[in-house]
């Protein structure tokens, strides 16, 4: 009995060591050489050793790194961590304001993880960044769009029938690449658009179940990129949202009124 217990304990210790090795410790130098501009998708935790939330995330991240390594999801994905008490200039340069902050990098682009810091949240974050930023609805677009709108509180920004040469299409694609971790983007083309998009051909439409659609109005002064991104940021939440740790500050950062109802479930 005692021998079996010792073997089980040793196996658990070895598994923990292997998992920890999957999360690479990064310094200023190794971050610049390995992460910046890398074609691999890097997920990096910026932390402080004394931070309680960081300690809670550590085993979750280590197990997640080990679990996805042999899978298709883990192909081309690297995971690292930066101790901000030792590399404060690197953390300041990345705009880290609190701990832990999880950032993702690929080909010079940078995203901040907004999902819950759980295995499911990590998995969904990686899945999104390994998928195309814009879902092409194609034939049967109505069913595909309805599926995107199924989850409670889902918001979909859809480009309705704009041609590839339309400046709005190019800006929509660029904005989707920047914001794909916080919003869902879709595009429909052809003569038969989904019913929610048919009245708005050539426009970007915000859709959410149970709410009236909102349509982006391109500016007359030509400031399309900034105006579109500002609209997408302001409209990315449904009118009624469940406030959680990962989305609360995103709601506060917008130039809109926020009313909170505190309920006892």
TrEMBL record:
Cell compartment(s), UniProt: Endoplasmic reticulum membrane
GO annotations of cellular component type: endoplasmic reticulum membrane
Species of the source: Emiliania huxleyi (Coccolithophore)
Domain of life: Eukaryota
Matching InterPro entries: PDI_TMX3, Thioredoxin-like_sf, Thioredoxin_CS, Thioredoxin_domain
Pfam families the record matches: Thioredoxin
Leader peptide range in chain numbering: 1-20
Thioredoxin domain location: 3-177
Membrane topology: Single-pass membrane protein
Predominant location category: endoplasmic reticulum
Keywords linked to the UniProt accession: Membrane, Signal, Transmembrane, Transmembrane helix
Entry annotated with the keyword Ubl conjugation: no
Function statement: Probable disulfide isomerase, which participates in the folding of proteins containing disulfide bonds. May act as a dithiol oxidase. Acts as a regulator of endoplasmic reticulum-mitochondria contact sites via its ability to regulate redox signals.
Name of the featured protein: Thioredoxin domain-containing protein
């Amino acid at each position: 009995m005692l021998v079996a217990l010792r073997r089980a304990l040793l196996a658990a210790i070895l598994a923990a060591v292997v998992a920890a090795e999957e999360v690479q410790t990064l310094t200023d130098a190794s971050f610049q050489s390995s992460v910046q501009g890398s074609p691999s998708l890097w997920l990096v935790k910026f932390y402080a050793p004394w931070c309680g939330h960081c300690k809670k995330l550590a085993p979750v991240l280590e197990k997640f790194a080990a679990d996805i390594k042999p899978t298709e999801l883990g192909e081309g994905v690297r995971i690292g961590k930066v101790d901000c008490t030792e590399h404060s200039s690197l953390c300041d340069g990345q705009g880290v304001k609190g701990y832990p902050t999880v950032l993702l990098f690929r080909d010079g682009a940078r995203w901040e993880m907004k999902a819950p810091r759980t295995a499911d949240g990590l998995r969904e974050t990686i899945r999104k960044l390994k998928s195309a930023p814009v879902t092409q609805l194609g034939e049967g677009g109505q069913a595909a769009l309805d599926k995107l709108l199924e989850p409670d509180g889902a918001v979909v920004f859809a480009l309705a029938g704009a041609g590839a040469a339309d400046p709005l299409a190019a800006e929509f694609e660029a904005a989707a690449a920047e914001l794909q971790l916080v919003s869902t983007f879709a595009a429909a083309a052809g003569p038969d658009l989904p019913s929610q998009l048919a009245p708005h051909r050539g426009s970007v439409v915000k859709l959410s179940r149970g709410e009236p659609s909102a349509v982006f109005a391109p500016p007359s002064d030509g400031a399309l990129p900034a105006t579109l991104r500002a609209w997408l940021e302001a409209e990315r939440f449904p009118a009624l949202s469940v406030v959680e740790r990962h989305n609360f500050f995103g709601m506060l950062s917008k130039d809109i009124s926020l009313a909170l109802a505190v309920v006892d479930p």
